[in-house]
Design brief:
- The chain is of the alpha/beta class and about 170 residues long.
- The protein contains five helices and six strands, in the order ββααββαβαβα.
- Helix 3 packs parallel to helix 4 and helix 4 packs across helix 5.
- The structure holds ligand AR6.
- Ligand AR6 binds next to strand 2 and helix 1.
- The site of ligand AR6 has 25 residues, from strand 2 and helix 1.
Length: about 170
């Protein structure tokens, strides 16, 4: 079964097969991790994104990584947090599930995820981390791809939320 790691880092610096972008439905760039990925990848990323016709929340679309160390970028759109009763959890699950399905399609070994929706989109980080870890563990139990999943925390509070879950006894 594939491995799960946790790091505190800038996702644009990681040498993995694919990094996941927490984008918006336009796929035309923005702030946060999306802005950082576009800056690091260079303008050809935006050119390819323009051809994709946007992306619905919960879906995931693939581009090349251009100047990034990563070969691919998987763009997914998380839910905007509206209090938790508007289907946010299901959409967030779909982001992880569809991104991991893209890894299977690409036959790619390693992927790094940011903490989707917990910045500008306001999803509480402990709740989002639980969804992320559950979906990744479920996928890895069923699929040989990817072999390695890296959760990337940008700040100590996010790191701690994931660490608490990943170090908890199974079950
Ligand atoms: N590497 C890793 N994680 C990062 C980086 C980085 N370089 N920069 C920020 N984060 P956010 P969202 C963390 O706001 O909540 C954009 O404008 C950040 O600290 O990037 O899904 C899009 O275009 C937080 O923990 O994404 C959308 O409009 C996490 O990444 C909107 O923001 C997610 O924060 C999406 O909002």
């Amino acid at each position: 079964m594939g491995s799960i790691e946790l790091v505190q880092a800038d996702i644009t610096t990681l040498t993995v097969d694919a990094i996941v972008n927490a984008a918006n439905s336009s796929l035309l760039g923005g702030g946060g991790v999306d802005g950082a990925i576009h800056r690091a990848a260079g303008p050809d990323l935006l050119k390819e994104c323009r051809l994709l016709g946007g992306c619905e929340p919960g879906e995931a679309k693939v581009t090349a990584g251009y100047r990034l160390p990563a070969r691919w970028v998987i763009h997914t759109v998380g839910p905007v947090w509206r209090g938790g009763r508007s289907g946010e959890e299901e959409v967030l699950r779909d982001c992880y599930r569809h991104s991991l399905e893209q890894m299977v399609r690409l036959r790619a070994a390693s992927v790094a995820f940011p903490s989707i929706s917990t910045g500008l989109y306001g999803y509480p980080v402990e709740r989002a981390a639980r969804v992320a870890v559950q979906e990744v563990q479920r996928h890895l139990a069923e699929s040989p791809w990817p072999e390695r999943v890296v959760f990337v925390a940008f700040d100590p509070a996010t790191y701690e939320a994931y660490r608490a879950l990943l170090e908890a006894p199974a079950g």
